[in-house]
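Workshop exercise sheet. Pairs work together: one partner reads the sequence aloud, the other fills in the structure field after running the prediction. Swap roles for the next sheet.
Pair: D.N. / O.F.
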Amino acid sequence: MKNWYALYVKSRHEFVTQGELIRKGINAFLPTVKKMHQWKDRKKLVELPLFPGYLFVYLQPYEEGFLSVLRTRGAVNLLTAEAGIPRPVPEEEINSLMLVLESGQKIDIYPELREGTRVRVKRGPLQGAVGTLENREDQYKFLVNIDILGRSIGVVVYADDIVTD
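Structure field:
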């Protein structure tokens, strides 16, 4: 009976490893989200792994199958409960994740950012400014209040540009 397993991969190798696994005939699921990314000269909507560093593989629980996965470029380790024994991910959790992704609903990829959280702007013209997260407008932008001279002003800042203080 096949099970889903979580595979830890090298940093930024999620798509490469998924492609290699598929070429080997192994069912690999890489949940992704689209996120606005900003460079100095432009902004672009890019597809990123929902769980950076991880993807899921569906295979029979036998040693040769595990070794085939681990011999794939970018693969590091299967998550285990005890040393050497990969731990299956419950199928209902994977099915639920697939349903959420297929629904097209907005996914919160910044769960640590909540209203009332103190944040610091890490880049851009407001770099170093500290404020309080007041209101989420959508999954990409946040309204931040910055106290200056005892007054607050609202500024829209991209979530990628802030960190919790």
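Discussion prompt: The chain has a mean pLDDT of 83. What would you look at next?
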